[in-house]
Amino acid sequence: MYLTYLEYQNYGGTADETTFNDLEFEASSVVDWYTFNRLQNENEYPEAVKRCVYKIIQYIVAQQQVNGLDTASAQNNSEGAGIASQSNDGVSVSYNVLNAKDVVENSKAQIKQIVDQYLSAVKNSLGQKVLYRGVYPNE
Known about the structure:
single chain, mainly alpha, 5 helices, 2 strands
């Protein structure tokens, strides 16, 4: 766990603890994927790692709301996430057309950008750059 619930709240996070645990696990998995698990054996994590996980969580929450997967926001949104426009007199409704492949690729690119932005200069306790795409001698 790269980010505790208390740290998440201090950064401005508003999700309840159960939801946070799920989101933190997902965000940490993303960080582990891009860093080849180079941060897993650390005793302390740099501020950049914690902020990165927080930003990924915020991005995931925003995507869930946009895609209508968040039930709380869907109940508060009378139009629904997929409706682009409505007219009353002629009773016409037009919907957003989402290509699933484009949505997934865009999400991957956005998350990669967050990881690159926050972790580009981070090194682990062995002095290894965590985003280095090669193999270090002791790996």
